[in-house]
Design goal:
single chain; 257 residues; alpha+beta; eight-stranded mixed sheet; 10 helices; 8 strands; 37% helix; 14% strand; globular
């Protein structure tokens, strides 16, 4: 990671999004270095809950043993196998076998949806989450993930579309909370013209994030372009000055909760 880029964005973030939390980054790599290795949890645990400490500044490294959620294993590339009776689990359930989450109307819809979800392998690599200001020269982030409330999301969304003629510079694919910050943006990072991913609408992941917070995940190659044009964007206008005041009030309110 180029440290000058790290510091430049940090300064711009503090200028235009004062008080808002810095993003975290993710990277798949073979050596986790000095990152804190996440031990196997005691029973099932949502991956989104597990990464909370990364947002507070602790660099965390996961492998397949760190994750006990079947969906989490699938969306991090550590397994290409669906949990037993997954088609029923995601839909209306199967009496005496599995209770359904009812996120899809029928098992057949689950089957059709799954055929659109390509697998990707990450075996043999650690999944490392690092807060932006903790990055150093050895890091090579692939995705930048913001956890943010509406005013900040407004700025991120508009930045993501600033240099695009396509109105769909931001996509919102259906999936688990972890898919929206890991799987989909990582797949986008492999493309020549990647999209930014809006997410964290999964009801099962919502207990793991603060009230009113969603996520915006930028593929790194897209994020580098965003940093380059922040100072010529709407962020320099009186309109954004008004929004900045609302960000300040939002930050103050969140600290009281």
């Amino acid at each position: 990671m180029d440290i000058t880029i790290r510091d430049r964005f940090t300064a711009l973030w503090q200028q235009y999004f004062p008080g808002a939390g810095l993003p975290i980054t993710l990277e798949f790599r073979k050596e986790s270095g000095s990152s804190e290795k996440v031990p196997p949890p005691d029973g099932w645990r949502c991956l989104v809950c597990q990464i909370g400490r990364a947002r507070n500044g602790t660099t965390l490294a996961f492998d397949a043993r760190s994750i006990t959620c079947g969906g989490g294993l699938m969306y991090t590339g550590y397994s290409d196998k669906r949990p037993p009776n997954f088609r029923y689990f995601l839909s209306h359930g199967k009496p005496g076998v599995v209770e359904g989450e009812r996120y899809k109307r029928t098992p057949e819809l689950v089957d059709a949806w799954e055929r659109l979800i390509p697998a990707f392998p990450s075996q043999g690599k650690d999944l490392v989450f690092t807060r932006w200001d903790k990055l150093d020269e050895k890091d090579n982030p692939e995705v930048v993930i913001f956890f943010a409330r509406p005013e900040v999301m407004s700025g991120l969304f508009t930045l993501a579309n600033f240099d695009q003629s396509d109105p769909n510079g931001v996509i919102c694919p259906m999936g688990s909370g972890c898919s929206s910050i890991i799987y989909y943006p990582w797949l986008e990072q492999q493309k020549n013209d990647p999209k930014v991913v809006l997410g964290m609408f999964d009801p099962s992941a919502r207990p793991c994030v603060p009230v009113d917070v969603l996520t915006m995940a930028f593929p790194m190659k897209r994020f580098l372009k965003v940093i380059g044009y922040m100072e010529e964007s709407f962020l320099t206008t009186k309109t954004w000055d008004t929004v900045k005041k609302k960000i300040g009030r939002s930050v103050a309110l969140s600290k009281k909760k």
